[in-house]
Design brief:
Blueprint: H1 2-10, E1 22-27, H2 30-39, E2 44-48, H3 62-75, E3 81-84, H4 112-117, H5 119-130, E4 138-142, H6 148-164, E5 173-177, H7 180-184, H8 186-190, E6 195-198, H9 200-208, H10 226-241, E7 245-248, H11 259-264, E8 269-272, H12 277-285, H13 289-299, H14 305-311
Parallel strand pairs: 1-2, 1-8, 2-3, 3-4, 4-5, 5-6, 6-7, 7-8
Helix pairs in contact: 1-12, 2-3, 3-5, 5-6
Bound molecules: phosphoenolpyruvate (PEP) and magnesium ion.
Length: about 325
């Protein structure tokens, strides 16, 4: 039995009626990559590159970054690696980037905005990713996108750096959908983004206007809120219009109560915490698309996240 469970954990994943769902892992270090492969991850849906930038006195060099990304790509043995560009600022401050005091850091200089504020930092990171081999294994994902214009600006920088490095092949460039603006205009963004990945943690924070770090509100910042689910549906719809892969890399992808709803809303890639992968895969295999759609439809009409959780077949987790 253990061997059967182990084999199932490593096989590709589809619903009982044959809808392919990719189950990827969120990573924050090279050690995580090994754990993820051992747990059956089909790839990495979110590499939080902040681990290289935090708790030090200066930014890592391009060479250091390239070596680290290469080690993670190698550990993934050919599986796709989605690297998120630097997402510092807000709740993730670093000493060598003295962001002027802000009254609302969550609404301030963070995510991709830092990359535009310090373009050399963004360019060095893009070059480091472009150097990873084999070409094509890495995809680049941008955090905190709010407008199509931001994606265009990064695409232009990326093409410039790519040509300067003599890399002929284009690199997939996708966005995180974690601002309400991105979710509402997903159809505009999907016209030019190679893929979309929904960051349900920040999407919940910004949709509900509740600080995800506030202990008094923590219990209420639940991404299963029907308002957040409606935006997830909108993002999936926008992505589908252009045939883009739409995934989830926020906490909901590891939440067994949410997985059937996400699939019902049109999500086809789940990037979970490595330890949750075997359970997520087992659950996906027990579902049908029709049942997931019906559940999602009901979830969108509930009065609270708790009411949504109460609908989940397993009672939630
Ligand atoms: C998210 O916001 O859902 C996300 C995946 O990004 P992070 O948790 O790193 O902000
Ligand atoms: Mg986020």
């Amino acid at each position: 039995r253990r061997e059967a469970a182990q084999a199932a954990a490593h096989a590709d994943c589809a619903t009982a009626d044959g809808v392919r769902i990719e189950v990827f892992a969120n990573l924050g270090s090279e050690a995580d990559a090994h754990a993820a492969v051992a747990a059956g991850a089909e790839g990495c849906g979110l590499l939080r590159t902040e681990f290289l930038f935090m708790e030090r006195s200066q930014a890592p060099s391009e060479d250091e970054q390239a070596a680290s990304y290469q080690a993670i790509a190698t550990a993934l043995a050919g599986r796709p690696l989605i690297l998120r560009t630097l997402d510092i600022g807000g709740d993730k401050p670093v000493d060598y980037l003295p962001i002027p005091p802000e009254e609302n850091p969550a609404l301030g200089l963070r995510g991709l905005r830092v990359g535009f504020w310090k373009p050399e930092l963004l360019r060095a990171q893009l070059r480091a990713v472009l150097r990873v081999e084999p070409r094509g294994q890495c995809r680049i994902m941008l955090p905190m996108v709010a407008s199509l214009d931001e994606l265009r600006r990064v695409r232009a920088i990326l093409d410039e750096e790519r040509l300067a490095l003599g890399v002929a092949e284009p690199v997939q460039l996708g966005i995180m959908v974690e601002t309400p603006a991105a979710a509402i205009s997903a159809d505009l963004l999907a016209a030019e983004a190679d893929f979309l990945s929904i960051g349900t943690n920040d999407l919940a924070q910004y949709t509900l206007a509740m600080d995800r770090g506030n202990p008094l509100l923590a219990a209420q910042v639940d991404s299963l809120h029907p308002a957040v689910l409606r935006l997830i549906g909108k993002a999936a719809e926008g992505g589908a219009r252009y045939g883009r892969l739409v995934g989830v890399c926020g906490g909901l992808a590891s939440d067994l109560a949410a997985v059937p709803i996400l699939i019902g809303l049109g999500v086809t890639e789940l990037s979970a915490t490595p330890s949750a992968i075997p359970e997520v895969k087992a659950l996906v295999r027990s579902l049908t698309l029709a049942a997931c759609r019906e559940l999602a439809e009901r979830a969108l009409a509930q009065a609270s996240p708790a009411a949504v959780r109460a609908l989940a077949p397993a009672g939630g987790n």
